[in-house]
Design a protein that fits this description.
heterodimer; A: 6-stranded mixed sheet; 4-stranded antiparallel sheet; 10 strands; 21% strand; B: mainly alpha; 2 domains; 9 helices; 2 strands; cell membrane (chain B); transmembrane (chain B); Energy-coupling factor transporter transmembrane protein EcfT (chain B); membrane (chain B)
C-alpha cells in the first residue's frame, strides 16, 4: 500500500498564540513494499508526518493518499477505522499503551476493535506472541509483570495482530540493549519478507538505515530536504552534518580509509559491503607498498 | 481537543497585569467574586463590567480568549439561569403561570443578573490564570497559607504538591495525547457511539495513564531524594515575591470599586 503526500502543510493550534507550523509543502511518496527510513534531527517534523500516515492528524492543507483513501483537511473523523486497520503504528516506547489484564487480551485488543471475533483474536494473539520471539506461557500473565523488553515485544505483537499492510515504527529500539536491538530489527526485516509489508522506520540510528532501508526521506525544519536510496543519502557527509545527521559506522570507517588514500567505487553502507570492497583492494595495495597494516 | 481548554492556561505577556504580584492578583480575584454580590441593579452591573473590561484591556490578552473561557461552561450557566427564571419568587408582572412554574418580570431580571455574575466571575478568574504562571500562583498560595502553620497545617508540603501537580499538567496532557493516538491506531474510537461505548473506550486510556503517573511519581521521588530534598522547612526560594506600587494601586482601585458599588446599589 503506497502513501502519497501532496503539498501537505500542517499547523498546530492555528489561530492561537501557540500556533506552530510543523510541516511545510510536503510532497513525497512512500512506495508500496518499500522499507522507508524517515530521518531528521529532533523537531524536524518526523513525528507530525508519522501521524499523517494513519490519519491521526489531518493536513491543514494538501492531501494525503493512503492506499485508495484520500485524506483532505475536511475528511470526517468517522469511518477512518477501515483505513487504520491497514496501517499499524508502533509508537515510541509502545509499552506505555498496554492496559489489559493479560498479555493475550492486550494483543487481541486491536483485532477485536476491527471486527475479529474473540476466538479468532485470541488465536492471532498466540501466533503473534511467538512471532515476536516470546514464550507462549506468557499469554496468561499480566503485561505489567514483564520486563521492559518483553513489554515492548508484547506491544509490538499487539500492533502486528491487526495484520497491517503498512507498519510504521517510531524508534522501536530506543532503550533496548544491543542484543535486543539487533533481534528486533531482524524481526522486522523478516516480517517484511514474510508478509510483504511496507515499513516506515523513524530512527536516529544511521546503522539501521544503512542495514535495512531501501528508501530514505530526510526532513529538516518541517520540510522534506532529500529523498533517495541510502547510497545517495550517505554519499555526502558534509551535507548530512549540515542537517545534524551522522553516517553509519561502516561508512564513517570507509571515509577514514579514503582520507588515507583508499578508493571505493561505491560507498559501502553495511559491514558486508565494506568487507567485500576491502577484499578486492587489499591484495593489490599490500603488494604495491606494503605499508598498510591489517 | 484539549487545546480548546483555555481556562487555566498562561499566556506570556508584558502588561501591568502580568507584572503584578501573584498574591495581589489572587486575593483581589477572590475579593472581586465577593463584591459581585453587592451588585443588585443595572448601574452596579454596568460598573462591574466596565471595571472587568478595563482590566482585560490592560492585560493585552485577546478578547477571544475570554469568550472561549465562557464557552465550555455555557450549558451550566444557561441551566442555572433557566432554573432561576422558572422557579424564582414571583414579583412584578407575571407573564406565565403553570403549576409550580412561574415566569415573572422579577425572575427574568434575576436570570439576567445571574448570567452576568457567571460571566464576570469567569472573565476575572480567566484573567488571573491567563496572566499568572502556575508556579507563581502556587507560590502565592503557599504564602497566603502560611498563617495555618500555627495549627500544624503542612503548608510547605501542600505547596510542593501543588507545584508538582501544576508542573505535570502539560506532561500528563502530552501523555494522554500519545496514548490516545496509540489506541486510536489500534482501532479505538474516542467520543463516538453511545455512552457505554464511550465509557469503555476510556479504559485503554486511563489505565496506561495511571501506570505511567505512578512510575513517574516514583522516579521523581527518587530524583528529589538523590538531590537531598528533606522537606520544605528552611528552604530558600528561587522566585521571591515582591509587592510593588502597582499592587497597591490595584488594591486602591478595588476599594474604590467597592465604595462605588455600595453607593450605586438599590
Amino acid at each position: 500500500m503506497a502513501i502519497t503526500f501532496k503539498q501537505v502543510e500542517f499547523t498546530y493550534q492555528p489561530g492561537t498564540p501557540f500556533e506552530t507550523k510543523a510541516l511545510t509543502d510536503i510532497n513525497v511518496t512512500i512506495p508500496d513494499g518499500s522499507y522507508t527510513a524517515l530521518i531528521g534531527h529532533t523537531g524536524s517534523g518526523k513525528s507530525t508526518l508519522l501521524q499523517h500516515l494513519d490519519a491521526l492528524l489531518k493536513p491543514t492543507s494538501g492531501t494525503v493518499t493512503i492506499g485508495d483513501r484520500v485524506i483532505t483537511p475536511t475528511t470526517s473523523n468517522k469511518d477512518l477505522k477501515s483505513l487504520r486497520q491497514h496501517v499499524g503504528i508502533v509508537f515510541q516506547f509502545p509499552e506505555s499503551q498496554l492496559f489489559e489484564e493479560t498479555v493475550e487480551k492486550d494483543i487481541a485488543f486491536g483485532p477485536q476493535n476491527f471486527g475479529a471475533s474473540e476466538a479468532d483474536a485470541l488465536k492471532l494473539a498466540a501466533k503473534m506472541l511467538t512471532l515476536v520471539g516470546l514464550d507462549s506461557d506468557l499469554l496468561q500473565r499480566s503485561p505489567f509483570d514483564l520486563s521492559g523488553g518483553q513489554m515492548r515485544r508484547v506491544a509490538i505483537a499487539g500492533v502486528l495482530a491487526m495484520q497491517p499492510k503498512v507498519l510504521v515504527l517510531d524508534e522501536p529500539t530506543a532503550g533496548l540493549d544491543p542484543q535486543g536491538r539487533l533481534e528486533m530489527m531482524e524481526m522486522f526485516a523478516r516480517l517484511r519478507h514474510e508478509q510483504q509489508l511496507t515499513i516506515v522506520l523513524v530512527t536516529h540510528q544511521m546503522d539501521d538505515v544503512a542495514n535495512y532501508a531501501n528508501n530514505v526521506i530526510v526532513m529538516d525544519h518541517g520540510q522534506v530536504v532529500k529523498t533517495g536510496t541510502p547510497q545517495a543519502i550517505f554519499k555526502d557527509p558534509q551535507w548530512l552534518a549540515e542537517h545534524h545527521l551522522g553516517l553509519p559506522k561502516t561508512t564513517a570507517f570507509a571515509q577514514q580509509l579514503m582520507a588515507r588514500g583508499m578508493t571505493f567505487d561505491e560507498m559501502p553502507l553495511t559491514e558486508d559491503q565494506l568487507a567485500a570492497a576491502l577484499v578486492k583492494q587489499l591484495p593489490a595495495s599490500m603488494l604495491g607498498g606494503g605499508d598498510h597494516d591489517e | 481537543m484539549m487545546s480548546k481548554l483555555i481556562f487555566g492556561r498562561y499566556i506570556p505577556g508584558n502588561s501591568v497585569i502580568h507584572h503584578m504580584d501573584p498574591r495581589a492578583k489572587l486575593l483581589l480575584s477572590f475579593y472581586f467574586i465577593g463584591i459581585i454580590f453587592i451588585a443588585n441593579n443595572w448601574p452596579t452591573y454596568v460598573l462591574l463590567f466596565a471595571f472587568t473590561l478595563l482590566a482585560i484591556k490592560l492585560s493585552g490578552v485577546k478578547w477571544s480568549f475570554f469568550i472561549n473561557g465562557v464557552k465550555p461552561l455555557i450549558w451550566l450557566i444557561l441551566f442555572t439561569v433557566v432554573l432561576q427564571i422558572l422557579f424564582s419568587a414571583s414579583g412584578g408582572h407575571v407573564y406565565l403561570q403553570w403549576g409550580i412554574i412561574t415566569i415573572s418580570q422579577f425572575g427574568l431580571i434575576n436570570g439576567v443578573y445571574i448570567f452576568c455574575r457567571f460571566v464576570l466571575i469567569i472573565f476575572m478568574s480567566t484573567l488571573l490564570t491567563l496572566t499568572t504562571p502556575p508556579l507563581e500562583l502556587s507560590d502565592a498560595i503557599e504564602y497566603l497559607l502560611m498563617p495555618l502553620k500555627v495549627v500544624h497545617f503542612p503548608v510547605y508540603e501542600v505547596a510542593l504538591m501543588l507545584s508538582i501537580a501544576l508542573r505535570f499538567v502539560p506532561t500528563l496532557m502530552d501523555e494522554t495525547e500519545k496514548i490516545m493516538n496509540a489506541q486510536r491506531a489500534r482501532g479505538v474510537d474516542f467520543g463516538e457511539g453511545n455512552i457505554f461505548q464511550q465509557m469503555r473506550a476510556i479504559v485503554p486510556l486511563l489505565i496506561p495513564l495511571f501506570v505511567s503517573s505512578f512510575n513517574r511519581a516514583e522516579d521523581l521521588a527518587t530524583a528529589m531524594e538523590a538531590r537531598g530534598y528533606q522537606g520544605g522547612e528552611g528552604r530558600s526560594k528561587y522566585r521571591i515575591l515582591k509587592w510593588h506600587g502597582r499592587d497597591t494601586w490595584a488594591t486602591v482601585a478595588f476599594a474604590a470599586l467597592t465604595v462605588a458599588l455600595v453607593f450605586l446599589r438599590a
